[in-house]
Amino acid sequence: MKKITVILGTSRPGSYTSKALALILDEFAKHKGVHVDLIDPSHLTLLFPGQDGNRKDQEIIQEMVTQADGIVFSTPEYHGSMSAAAKLIIENLSFPSVLADKPVAMMGVATGGIGAIKTLEQLRLTLSHIGAIVLPFPVSVARVQKIFTKDGICQDETIENLLRGLADRLLEYIDG
Q1: Cα end-to-end span (Å), the chain
Q2: What's 16's domain CATH number?
Q3: What are the strands, taking DSSP E only, across 79-157?
């Protein structure tokens, strides 16, 4: 059984990131012997480093990543960078990070014309710095509000294929 942990880097309800991620999750579901865990910050209480409080959710996500054979990290682009929720998840994955030596496929969405390119560059730097094995060919969805309907239907076959392909490439990497 392959274990994949998928990180949703936003807590915004009905987000475009979650709509794009739904295609990746659907692609994983087509593969037998693949178990997927979802880290959704809207269901978690994560603390800032050094902050006192209950660390139960931090321990849960650390265990999910530790047990994973591969990771999908998704984030919207907010003001030219990853979301605060995405960064907070990274901060809660310990130091040294449990992402170290884990293969990570990245996906980002943005409403602008160049997509989440800047965000994915920054995310790649951060993940590489903490020792993750960042896979090539991240998926950046530009003008995401024109790609997905309010109901989450992808209206662009090329984008759908890229998102589904991200899941397939991660599984291929894990298979070696």
Answers
A1: 15
A2: 3.40.50.360
A3: 81-82, 103-109, 133-134, 139-141
Give the CA distances from residue 142 to residues 17, 20, 60, 105, in Å, rounded to whole numbers and listed in that order: 11, 12, 32, 18
Whether 162 contacts 139, CB under 8 Å: yes
pLDDT at residue 50 tops 90? no
Looking at residue 153, what DSSP letter applies?
A: -
Instruction: Please give the structure tokens belonging to residue 135.
Output: 């896979």
Which amino acid is residue 68, in one-letter code?
A
Number of domains the chain is built from: 1
Pairing label, strands 2-8, 70-78: parallel
Encode pLDDT of 92-144 as tens digits: 999 999 999 999 999 999 999 999 999 999 999 999 999 999 999 999 999 99
Evaluated on CA atoms 107, 110, 115, 119, the torsion sign reads negative
* Residue ranges making up the domain that contains 142: 2-175
Q: Tens of pLDDT along 7-18?
A: 999 999 999 999
pTM over 0.90: yes
Alpha-carbon span 48 to 170, nearest angstrom: 30
Hey, what amino acid is at 11? S
161 burial (CB, 10 Å; 0-12 / 13-18 / 19+) is middle
Residue type, 170: L
